């Protein structure tokens, strides 16, 4: 069973924007805090942003003011709008519950490079 399917990544120049999307199963989405994480080569997985059922949002210091997390509770979609992207944002991005489940999707690759 695949609980999370991420999409929307790509190659973008510094200063550019991308919008990520995650389709989740209802059972994993409906009553839970959802989050975006990222994993860069040689680094540990990092929590990027999370959003609870009431749409209270918390962001990592490194992305605050540039990224916006949102959720569609009717369709079990989690989104991440990323603006003013920087090379250090390059990573594979994953969605999951917060705290995370042991099962992860394939993620979507974001590469920020000129």
Q: Which structural category fits the helices and strands?
A: mainly beta
General form: globular
Report low-confidence residues grouped into runs of 5 or more: none
Radius of gyration: 13 Å
- So how many helices? 1
The H/E string reads EEEHEEEEEEE
Please indicate the percent range of residues in DSSP E strands (runs of 2 or more).
over 45%
Gap between N and C termini, in Å?
38 Å
Average predicted local confidence, pLDDT = 95
> Mind describing the biggest β-sheet?
6 strands, mixed
Count all strands and give the number.
10
Helix share, percent = under 10%
Strand sequence of the main sheet, in spatial order? Answer: 2-10-9-4-5-6
Give the topology:
Layout: E1 4-7, E2 10-12, E3 18-24, H1 26-29, E4 34-39, E5 46-51, E6 57-59, E7 67-72, E8 77-82, E9 91-97, E10 108-112
Parallel strand pairs: 2-10
Antiparallel strand pairs: 1-3, 3-8, 4-5, 4-9, 5-6, 7-8, 9-10
Description:
This protein is mostly beta strands and 114 residues long. Helices cover 4% and strands 46% of the residues. The chain has one helix and ten strands, in the order βββαβββββββ. It has one helix at residues 26-29, and strands spanning 4-7, 10-12, 18-24, 34-39, 46-51, 57-59, 67-72, 77-82, 91-97, 108-112. Strands 2-10-9-4-5-6 form a six-stranded mixed β-sheet, with no helix packed on it. Strand 7 (67-72) and strand 8 form a beta hairpin. It is globular and about 40 Å long. The model has no long low-confidence stretch (mean pLDDT 95).
């Amino acid at each position: 069973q695949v609980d999370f399917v991420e999409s929307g990544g790509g190659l973008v120049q510094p200063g550019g924007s991308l919008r990520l999307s995650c389709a989740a199963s209802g059972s994993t989405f409906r009553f839970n805090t959802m989050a975006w994480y990222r994993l860069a080569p040689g680094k540990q997985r990092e929590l990027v942003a999370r959003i609870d059922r009431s749409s209270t949002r918390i962001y990592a210091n490194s992305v605050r003011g540039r990224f916006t997390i949102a959720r569609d509770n009717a369709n079990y979609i989690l989104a991440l709008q990323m603006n003013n992207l920087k090379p250090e944002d390059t990573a594979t991005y994953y969605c999951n519950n917060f705290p995370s489940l042991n099962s992860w999707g394939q993620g979507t690759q974001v590469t920020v490079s000129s």
